[in-house]
Structure formats: C-alpha cells, structure tokens
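agent> Task received from the user: take the single chain below, predict its 3D structure, and emit structure tokens. No templates, no multimer pairing.
agent> Plan: (1) validate residues, (2) run structure prediction, (3) serialize to tokens, (4) report one or two observations.
agent> Step 1 OK, no nonstandard residues flagged.
tool_call: predict_structure(input=
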Amino acid sequence: MRFSLFTLLCSVLLALGTRAVTAASAPPKASAPDPVWQARLADFGDANYERQVATLLEKFEAASGKKLAPGPKKKAGLKIYADSGPGMATPVALVRAVITALERRGFEPQNIFLVGLNQLRLRMTGYLPSLVSGQTPFKGHQVYVLESGRYYDPVWFYDSPLPQRFDPIFAEQQTKDFPNNSSKDEDRKSFLATPLFLDADFWINLPVYTDHPTLGVNGALVNATLWNASNTARFFRSPANAPAAVAEMSAIPELRQTWMFTIASLEHYQFIGGPFFNSLYSASEPLLWLSTDPVILDSLARDRMNDHRKKEGFPPINEDIRTLEFAETLGVGSTHTKLVKVIPVE
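)
tool_result: status=success, residues=346
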C-alpha cells in the first residue's frame, strides 16, 4: 500500500497559503477540538496511576460509546516512547496501569503488546529485560523493537517525492549525524510498522513530551509516525520536509482507524534541549491527559513548553515549524487550545 506525500502536501500548502491571504478579510471559523479528559495524580506511584487510568478509560467509554474490549484479533497495542533515554521515557507505572485496565476488560496478558523503536534505549528505560538480572516489569507481554527490521511489511510503505539526494549546503549541519548509505529508491520510502494497525483491534499512544529542533514538539504525533517507521533519518537530512511528513503519516486512514486515543503523562517533560534528556530543562506536573485528538495535546504541551522557555529567558519554539498546523489542515486535529474543553476527572 503506497502512501504518497505529493497530493496531500500540495493541499496543505495551498490551504495554508490561502488562509494567509484571506485572513485579514475573512478569518476562518475554528472548530472546537475533541475534549481532553484530565486526571490529577496525587503521586506517581503504581496505585495512583492505576486508579486514575481506570477512571479515564471509564469516562472515555461512557462519552464515546466505544468499549475497549477484545475484538476479532483479540489484541491491543501500546506505542511507548523511550528514545530520549532514562529520565524522559513513558513512565513504566503508566504502562502497567493501562495493561491492568485492559486485562480487566478481557484481554489476555500475552495479547497486549508494546511497540518501541530502539533496543538499547528500551533496555535502559526498563522495557526490555535487564542484562544483569534478566528481570522486566512486562513479563508475558511482547515488546516489538522496530529497529530490528522484523516488523515492517514491504507492501506497506510511505512514499514521498522528496529529492533523492539532499542539498549539501542547506542540510550540512542537520545531516552530519545521519550518514546516507541508502539507495536513491530507498531514500523515497519509509516502511510502516504493521503490528499496531494490522495485528491489533486497537492501539493506544503513550508519548512523552520534549522539544525538537526540526519538529517543534516531539510528542503524540511524532511518537505515532516517525518513531513508528523505518528510514526516518531521511527527513532530518532534509529538515524542511519533516513537519509535512509527520502530518501526512498521521493522516493515513489505516493507522488512524485503529488508533483509539493518546494518554500523556506530564510526570516529566522537557522544554528545551530536546530530544536528548537534560534534567536542567525538564518540568513535572501531576497531570494525566486522554484525548482522541493528538494535535490538541501537542498544542497544549507546546504552550507549556513556551511558558517555561519564557521564564528561563529562552525564545519560544520556532513558529516556522508548522508540524501541528499541517496536521490540522489534514483533519488530524485542532491547534486551538483556547477552544478545547478540558474535562477534570475525579
């Protein structure tokens, strides 16, 4: 299945350009984002995460009419984030709480699987067994490591008409850590990890928030797209194309069809220096968010990051990085944080 960037990217640029021209005379009416359910954590322990996740899922089921129960495939997937290393990974307590909630709804432990990108970082953050003790908090659950290359299907790839070799002057600094040893044809393709949208009845996105020099916000959208595909370094060799690629991939119907929602913990997030962990620029809030709109979650996180950056004397996240706006134009979600309905969950 070939997903082409060209058609939708043209529509994105056309829509954004038209919006800029007509904004002064007839500003478009913004639609309200999907709601965000918000739970407050008394602490970051297992018991509190388990209690609040259970409540969030109950509220979501009641409001949406959807039941998080086993379907024909009898499997559920969890997309975790560990790529900033220890200190800035999806909290293990959150993942355990989601697994517990799904098991209570009828899923067998072996049918709840985790998907991550890098083996070393998954091991460093506790998602793969320790090489010393051999222990893991996720015994009985499969952990799919995408960089192993075993979970990509040659039929399912994201193809884009980006330049097959990149401008060395434009991308010199951005490409220095990403050697290009692929073929010209391979440069155009990113193979999609199929377990989440082919093997599962549904999947849940569990990102962590950091800033990113190329993408602006490294959160819900990026965790579901670039960190869920192969050959994504090509977008960092041509940074101007990365935001559009994230938006395009997040709009793929097959991926969205099984993407139930995103749960984001603010136990830790980073507002500058990301995506590499730096404790000096990290923050913590006892909040847990759930929404079907990844764009509004990323927009709320961006507002918080910019508030911290301002307090610390740093400039805001580069407004020229249009990742969230591109995704909004493609109908993935909304950036209008002033219109969002945040529903407190007690």
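agent> Step 4: summary for the user.
The radius of gyration is 20 Å.
agent> Done.
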